[in-house]
Amino acid sequence: MKWRLLVLQIATPILAIVFGVVIASIIVLAIGRNPLDVFGVLLRFGLLRADSLLSILFKATPLIFAGLAVALSFRAALWNIGVEGQYYIGAFCAAYVGFGIKGLPVAVHLPLAVLAAGLGGMLWALVPILLKLRRGAHEVITTIMMNYIAAAVILYLIADVFRDPSQIGTPRVRTPEFPGSARVPSMGPLLGLLGLTGPDANKVNWLLIFGLVLCVLFTVLLSRTRFGYEVRAVAFNPQAAEAAGIPNARIQFLMFMLSGGVAGLAGLSDVLGFFGYLDIDFPKGLGFLGISIALLAKNNPLGVVLAALLFGFLDRGALGVQFFARVPKEVIVILQALIILAIVVAYELVTRYIRMQRKREAERPATAPAAAAEAGH
Amino acid sequence: MHPVLIELKGITKRFPGVVANDYIDLTVLRGEIHAIVGENGAGKSTLMRILYGLYQPDEGSIEVNGSPVVIDSPRKALQLGIGMVHQHFMLIPRFTVAENVILGSEPAGALGRLRRKEAEQRVRELCRQYGFALDPAAEVSMLSVGEQQRVEIIKVLYRGADVLILDEPTAVLVPQEVDELFANLRRLREQGKTIIFISHMLDEVLEISDRITVLRRGRVVGTVPAAGTTKSQLAEMMVGRPVLLELEHPPVTPGEVRLEAREVTVAGRGGRPVVSRLSLAVRAGEIYGIAGVEGNGQTELVEALVGLRPVTSGRILIEGHDVANASARAIRLLGAAHIPEDRHRRGLVLPMAVWENVVLGHHSRPQFLDGAFVDRKAIESFANERVEKFDIRLSNIDVPALALSGGNQQKVIVAREFSFNPKVLIAAQPTRGLDIGATEFVERQLLEARSNGMAVLLISANLEEVLSLSDRIGVMCSGELVAEFRRGEATPQELGLYMTGTRRAGATSP
């Protein structure tokens, strides 16, 4: 019985993906294509080419931060829908440190830029969490509002205050470029040693490793420490935590700040690792992808890494499907969303089933000794 | 007419993992009051739900008046003359008694016009026929709990029931109301009604019923006549082993005052005081019991004492330290333990493992920490020791608390709160929902704590429990302490008068 559950638990993500593929196949059939062809291309193009694998790593890097940020807030029973705005502000703070300071060594300048991004994210998370803890304003509403403000603020800052003067007269609206000391180094040289070269190898940067380390650190923090214990108690039953003397508000505040801080880093892979300046058209929407990733990962930091890789794969594979299987781009977007949706649903169903089985398991031996004791009388 | 009104034969009902009813035979005679007793989980409610058509049995048959029937819905049960008075009332407070009674089978005239006068008249007749003191025109929100229960009974009679199933009807009543209920039930019996009475209060069962069927673990242990059966015989049938019904209450000389409330006022919703100028003192080696109808400020008083609710005015002293409006953590650190009245809401984090719940609130003690890390080994060995000492039954300490039975969940809380030598114990409804065995265990622990010199404040809706455990008893009514007695000074009836506010004494002054 115990074995069966364990196997089921391991098989859950696989079952979920199979379910997603089945649902997506129906759509593919509906537009008159052969699902085997389409998924064949998706897998071959997405997984069997070195440049695709590298591209997946590059695409997954910001998603790890965004997913981790959302997952951290969910772990404290808070809904940080404001990762989107928090990473805008974080990206701008990093850019400001990047182009605003000159002549620092990499060892100082880069950490400073990363720190600025984290603080920027925290700043943007501070308002909603204070409003929640002090005034009871729901953080879903306030973080969404803060997203709009953040979008407008950075447009104003990039276009009207810090626009690169050398670009005036061109259609490019962006900040000045950062010196090399504020850029995240590429992993290209290291990957080159493994025989992986080319533009996609150069795009992969060290923030990927930083993100992985953060995920491991947060796993340890949440599962092994006193703080993690208190976070769990507050998230599952704030009233019991309160009665046990755990400071609910402080725990929620700290977790929201951590969430905002990690959120602030989501834009860095693109801004400090790839472009080297903050453009008005820098990649947007990471915060919302982060919500899907956290849901898919069941708020587990290590699961976030896997979910981010899956998103990267779907994104990269879609490119192949578009070119080689001649499926329109819009249909691919629908497929991506459906696969994710199906995975979430299937995951939930299997988890519920496991939980039910578990409960039954725990109860049975609980009554068995009682019956034995009775028989002894 | 057939003397046997209802006959259940071989009723079996299985739920995933449990057999709730295991081949149950039950014979109910016409015109008797038949009690069904058993511990929580013995299968009483399942059996009654089957009889009332809410569940279908997996096996077995039902005969009413000698002919086999299938009861597949409450509607069908009512057609056969079987009605159920639920434990939790299903009344609309803003409606009158008559409106509530007719709800669902309203007498309608032309164009669906409600014939209110006719309805009131019929309800009035029913009350007169059965001797129920009830005004059909009164609004239900103005009625006492006992009166609301009468409305529920009239509702069932109005629908033509000959058999009334009453599910734990006395759980919500004060002693006077229980007496009235019993008088009403006897009158119903005289007029030929048959009553099935579900309870686990043995005194009441022996007083009211003609015959008693005892269930244990889904099986019938036996059916006995009430006359000639003793309480301890019944208890033994229920539990399967001899039970000490009267716990020993050895004399203990109380020590210094450990917990004191001075003129404490606590505001409820909207700023209205729910506890007003309440003063009491609990000494070391003493159990101070608070009796009262639920909702008279006990919950708020406890929350204020343990730091979960602000105090508007007054002082709370624990060993001389003023802790009014101090944090729950600070009060805990002074040595106050708290068994919350709602174990699911305040006592446990249900999805967390038992080993994690056993140290909740004590998790930051140095012995359970290894730097910033949780010392899982230390906690686990502590948890295993507690599990053994408090006889908590589980497969292992990794299971989540939600997987345990209510009694075992309560034991987890008791085991935790009795750890680390608390000076003061505030126990709110510590045996609520527990079966006889678990109740006996918790009460025994409270008495042992008292012998060890702990100051215990016991808040319980179970008057019998307050009377049997306490050295002193305070009665709360409308947020005030209206009377105070020493052990043995007051009868349940007297306490009942104070609990309902019928009588007051100037006992609040020290």
The helix-and-strand class of chain B reads alpha/beta
Helix percent band of chain A = over 70%
| Total number of beta strands of chain B | 22
What structural class do the secondary elements of chain A suggest? Answer: mainly alpha
What oligomeric state do the depicted chains represent? heterodimer
CATH topology tier name of the largest domain in chain B: Rossmann fold
Q: What's the arrangement of strands in the largest beta sheet of chain B?
A: 6-7-8-3-9-10
Helix content of chain B: 25-40%
Q: CATH top level of the domain at 67-309 in chain A?
A: Mainly Alpha
Top-tier CATH class of the largest domain in chain B:
Alpha Beta
CATH architecture of the domain at 67-309 in chain A: Orthogonal Bundle
Strand % of chain A is under 5%
Average pLDDT reading of chain B: 89
Per-chain topology:
The complex is a heterodimer of chains A (377) and B (510).
Chain A: H1 2-30, H2 35-47, H3 50-75, H4 83-100, H5 106-135, H6 139-161, H7 188-193, H8 199-203, H9 207-224, H10 226-236, H11 238-243, H12 248-264, H13 268-275, H14 286-296, H15 301-324, H16 329-376
Helix pairs in contact in A: 1-2, 1-16, 2-15, 3-9, 3-12, 3-14, 3-15, 4-5, 4-6, 4-12, 4-14, 5-6, 5-12, 9-10, 9-15, 10-12, 14-15, 15-16
Chain B: E1 4-15, E2 18-29, E3 33-37, H1 44-51, E4 59-64, E5 67-69, H2 74-79, E6 82-85, H3 97-102, H4 116-130, H5 145-158, E7 163-167, H6 175-190, E8 194-199, H7 202-208, E9 211-216, E10 219-225, H8 231-239, E11 257-267, E12 273-283, E13 286-291, H9 298-305, E14 313-318, E15 321-322, H10 328-333, E16 336-339, H11 343-347, H12 354-357, E17 369-370, E18 373-374, H13 376-389, H14 406-417, E19 424-428, H15 436-451, E20 455-459, H16 463-469, E21 472-477, E22 480-486, H17 492-499
Parallel strand pairs in B: 3-8, 3-9, 6-7, 7-8, 13-20, 13-21, 16-19, 19-20
Antiparallel strand pairs in B: 1-2, 1-4, 4-5, 9-10, 11-12, 11-14, 14-15, 17-18, 21-22
Helix pairs in contact in B: 14-15
